[in-house]
Amino acid sequence: MTKTIFITGASAGIGKATAKLFASKGWKVIATMRKPELEQELTQLEQVTLLPLDVTNPEQIKATTQQALASGDIDVVFNNAGYALLGALEAIPDEELVRQMDTNFLGVVRVTQAFIPYFRERKSGLFITTGSSAGLMGFPVSSMYDASKWALEGWSESLSFELNALGIGIKTIEPGMVATEIQNRSVMASHPDYDTLLHKFMTAITSSPNGSTAEQIAEVVYEAATDGTNTLRYVCGEDAKALYAQRLAVGDEAFREVIKQMITEI
């Protein structure tokens, strides 16, 4: 029987790569994005249906969820919509603070909440969320982005207990640097007293030779959707794996010194 995945944030990056991969594997794909009328590539794929969805709009979440479920069974919900807000906290206006958490954290919570009754009735289903290595480790000039991803970590782990008891899975993908994602889908807050630090941090992450492509992360999403395990976290990308292993090995306080040294040497 053909399976179906529902994807948020499918207009670019990991979301689009995942939609294409699952379609190539014979899955039905419901790819959602804020402006589906602008999408040209996914519309060419027979297995893919496009629907409008802004994850900061609770009413649209309800409507799009109902429309998706009316079209047939859904097996996996991939919460991928999000972006990076970078820069010193002092430079970030309140509306940007709210938008970051509303999109990256509450958007995931609301979409998940909308699908839980359906999965509960079926006694099956799987939620997969795009987290980040920034949800496992704190980095400079990214306090709000890291906060949104750390929030997803605690939320997912806690929620796993109530969902698993109902036969529902929940998993988080933890990539490191993904090519083009930070550069093309970020909001930068500038402040002269922190711009040197911001520049050093951006240089460090964009010059990493061990980053991943969106297509490589999509392969991990497919693994998570099909491996039949109850694994909660999938740390992926050589950069994320190496840094997280180092953090676990040396401990939290020593690892902060590792990050400070990394930035100082640039």
Automatic annotation (TrEMBL):
User: InterPro entries from the entry?
Assistant: NAD(P)-bd_dom_sf (IPR036291), SDR_fam (IPR002347), SDR_oxidoreductase (IPR051911)
Q: List GO molecular-function terms, semicolon-separated.
A: oxidoreductase activity
Q: Which Pfam families match?
A: adh_short
Give the superkingdom in one word: Bacteria
Write the record's keywords in alphabetical order, separated by commas.
Oxidoreductase
Name the PANTHER family for this protein.
SHORT CHAIN DEHYDROGENASE, SHORT-CHAIN DEHYDROGENASE_REDUCTASE FAMILY PROTEIN
The family line of this record is: Belongs to the short-chain dehydrogenases/reductases (SDR) family.
Q: Please give the name of this protein.
A: Short-chain dehydrogenase/reductase
Q: Which organism is it from?
A: Siphonobacter curvatus
